[in-house]
Amino acid sequence: MDTMRDRFGPVLSRLLDEDPRVAVVLAEIGADAFTEAQRKHPDRVINVGIREQLLVGTGAGLALAGLRPVVHTFASFLVERPFEQVKLDFGHQGVGGVLVSAAASFDWPAGGFTHMSPGDVALLDTLDGWTVHVPGHPDEAETLLRHAVAAGDDKVYVRLSVQSNARGLPVDGARFRTVREGRGGVVIAVGPMLDNVLAATEGLDLTVLYATTVRPFDEEALRRATGSDTAADTGAVADVVVVEPYLAGTSTAAANDALADVPHRVLGLGVGRAELRRYGQIDEHVAAHGLDVRSLRERITGFLGARALV
């Protein structure tokens, strides 16, 4: 199966052909995927070299000129290193664009900590007005990339990863999807965490929501899944576990806000803050952060207790 990033070049190359507003800005990384597109559209495929602040600034400048820029590099070089430019050149100037990252939290362990970015979504959360897509399969990535480019002049972040679920699901760029229903609590699986969450909760009396668009946060879906209107009358506690492929707790505030008027508990599972200096392989990082199937089941059942049992 191809990866999400394998889809990125062909999809954007087609969008360059279809829409004269679309422009792609690169910082060497991923440039090989746009060789033909750059030949066809030399004014709309721009490689600034290894200059990440310039990468973001150029994208914002194209937006000021009326184009729809798609800016791409590894997450650590797209969100963390040029964060001031993201904040000012896009946010302060009031222009939109699409940031498309690769490498996710630890997709390339051999690259070391400089190429890992588990804090990217949390960092963008400090800014106003960003839509955040976290696809869990290459098919979903293609759909969400098209959503992002077509989203008027909005500010959109698309987080690509080599981690993937076995199959893609229909996604609409807005709502959470219910993939399993139960009465003992709600688990929100974000992007590539879905397969592990489904395996970890097999046989448990839990609702599983699948989130590929996490900002804006689908408060309505969570309230519906937890029966919040009933809980407000009966005093029942709504239990929620959020499993994210990036910094643990990134979405717990959003979940708490969604349930502010009812008794509730929220547990955030994700990538820990400690740096793992023996870089190993992706699966070893997943296990070390407690995101493998066995660890997830232990942590979810430990939090929810007897309510989760059928």
Automatic annotation (TrEMBL):
<dbReference type="InterPro" id="IPR009014">
    <property type="entry name" value="Transketo_C/PFOR_II"/>
</dbReference>
<dbReference type="InterPro" id="IPR005475">
    <property type="entry name" value="Transketolase-like_Pyr-bd"/>
</dbReference>
<dbReference type="InterPro" id="IPR029061">
    <property type="entry name" value="THDP-binding"/>
</dbReference>
<dbReference type="Pfam" id="PF02779">
    <property type="entry name" value="Transket_pyr"/>
</dbReference>
<feature type="domain" description="Transketolase-like pyrimidine-binding">
    <location>
        <begin position="2"/>
        <end position="168"/>
    </location>
</feature>
<dbReference type="InterPro" id="IPR051157">
    <property type="entry name" value="PDH/Transketolase"/>
</dbReference>
<protein>
    <submittedName>
        <fullName>Transketolase</fullName>
    </submittedName>
</protein>
